[in-house]
Amino acid sequence: MDKINYYLKGEEIIKTFGGKKPTLLMHVCCAPCSCYPLTYLIKYFDVTVHYNNSNIYPASEWELRRKELIKFIDDFNRDYKSNVKLIIKDYNHEEFMKELVPLKDEPERGKRCILCYTKRMRETWTYAEKNNFDYFTTVMTISRQKDSQVLNEIGDKLAKEFKKTKYFYSDFKKNDGILKGKKIRDFYKLYQQNYCGCEYSQRRINADKR
To answer: What share of the chain in percent tops pLDDT 90?
Structure first.
């Protein structure tokens, strides 16, 4: 089966705006992953980012990424003369993990990861719907470790649950997104984590170091 170019699907959506800037709520996992997507999106949207990541372990890591994101958004708004807003969802790791623990032995990118993506995307999309955002998307399609095809397929499925807020297709890896993001990340000297965020990915990284 041929892969869908979700970057082009997003571009087709943008062409329908007629110069107007709709509101967009973007799920964000960390500051480094936000770098390129924000430079791309602020040209077309009134952007708000939603830090919703109770999957992250331990709590100190969640807090470190939270602080780094706050600082980055402040610096980004100053330097890019933008007005990106930030919403932070409370950390509730124990509750979030209830559905994931039974899948603890799944491989990376397996059923556990797909469920984790889905939960965070649905929670952020629910906030977007309740607060009348025009569009929702996730920053996760920038990650080398995440399959953009899978993430956009999740977006397609979740779209059936929401009546008002539309899904914005993306593949932020396209158009040299990773390289552009790295340049911004290095410029701001952002903290770069070495694991996705959950305790299972942390254990795998630690095991690989042995």
So the answer is: 87
